[in-house]
Amino acid sequence: MTHAYDQLTPDTVLNAIDDVMAASGQMTSGHLLALNSYENRVYQVGMEDSAPLVAKFYRPDRWSDQAIYQEHDFCLAAKEDELPVIAPIQLDGETLFHYQGFRFALYPRQGGQSELIERSEDFEQMGRLLARLHQTANACEAHLRPEMTPATFAVANRTFLLENHWIPDSLIPAYESVSRDVIEQVEHVWRTHQPSLKLVHGDLHSGNLIWYQQQPIMLDLDDCARAPRIQDIWMMLHGERDQMQSQLADVAKGYEMFLPFPSHELPLIEALRTMRLINYSAWLAKRWEDPAFPMAFPWFNTERYWSEQILTLREQMSALQEPSLVLY
Fold it and tell me: Are 70 and 144 in contact (CB under 8 A)?
């Protein structure tokens, strides 16, 4: 079977960039390095007389052009507000380019390293950064970005996995039961707290942060969505409960310098974590025809994988019934 990305050869990538850069007199040098990305294809591209660029070729048929422009506008607004974010390069006012059926954007290359946040002062710094990002988001249009809800991230994905026979036959009864029960609990939490959905980064894990000279720089707003604001906070927390309590307090201290901290959304953390777990399995399944996925995730769709997912969802059922993190 062929995949759309099969047509994205090195020559196609270089020719696409030469095509849009021609008006500025810049040309690629022929150097091309594939970067670690699966949802899209991302490359570091050498330029003849300037620093290398990063080119992101969007997965075909995932977003409309207008939805991508809302992502770009969010990035550019954050950059305008002097936030440390890697925003798309504008050429003659344009940020989204087309070439032979592919859509792509260009970004400056940024040095640095990705790592777990460990220090108290770094969590506080992230709190300040997120509050400012959310301030910027309040003024951005987002009606074409996805909604992160139990219906979209849990129910729909569970249905997809079961109806398309991704679960091994021997494990279907267990998966059906535990996924139904855990989603019912997620929906109960959601109804109880009735969160408002606002524009957020949506996928702010350590891999989407680069630290340069002890400063965090945000990458990849490709998954920006309308969700509870706590979505951009809980993924930074790690360790045992007392460690997460301390990290949360540091984040809140920084956040409250610019916005009230959304402490009323803390009971949603385990619900959001559960939704992400189900969504992740469905994401892998939906992308399985892309040859890059079986190579990168060979453990997916094995009996062991689904057995572990059932166990994880049972653990999430317990977590959903425990007291949530709180601000002291």
Answer: yes
203 classed as catalytic = yes
Q: Are residues 69 and 130 located together in one domain of the fold?
A: no
Structural domain ending residue among the three candidates 108, 129, 155:
108
Per-residue DSSP letter, 205: S
Q: Tens digits of per-residue pLDDT, 66-120? A: 999 999 999 999 999 999 999 999 999 999 999 999 999 999 999 999 889 999 9
Q: At 85, which CATH number?
A: 3.30.200.70
Q: What is the pTM of this model?
A: 0.95
Give the strand pairing for 198-200 and 53-57: unpaired
pLDDT single digits (tens) 214-266: 999 998 899 999 999 999 999 999 999 999 999 999 999 999 999 999 999 99
Assess whether 184 and 262 both reside in one domain.
yes
The one catalytic residue in 18, 81, 220, 232 is 220
92 is catalytic: no
Give 124's contacts (C-beta < 8 A, 6+ positions apart): 250, 251, 253, 254
Catalytic residue selected from 18, 81, 181, 203: 203
**Residues 47 and 144 occupy one common structural domain:** no
